[in-house]
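Project standup — Tuesday

K.O.: blocked on the structure for the chain from last sprint. Re-posting the sequence here as requested.
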Amino acid sequence: MTALRLRAALLLAAVPLTAATAAAALRAGHWRLHADRHRIELAPQPRRSCPDCRGDGGWWVDGANPEMEACGCWANRPTLRIRLLPVPAWNESPF
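H.V.: unblocked you, prediction finished:
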């Protein structure tokens, strides 16, 4: 086996290991990955071990207008976005 083929084989063997490691790191850090051709986005997820929300992400606040209050285990963390390609403009009328 030549050095080039050996290097290619090792590279191909490392790809699944790298993907599994990245998936485990995202789960451990409580992130959700979304990727398409326009952006790569890492969004925070609620922690299942949070003593306040217990993984639900928040709780309902009573009152005249009940609404959900987000828990600080994920709501105070920023969403990270990397723009890749611009979204094309719509040149058609809606009807």
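K.O.: great, moving the ticket to review. Strands lie at 31-35, 39-44, 58-61, 67-70, 80-83. The first helix runs from residue 3 to 28.
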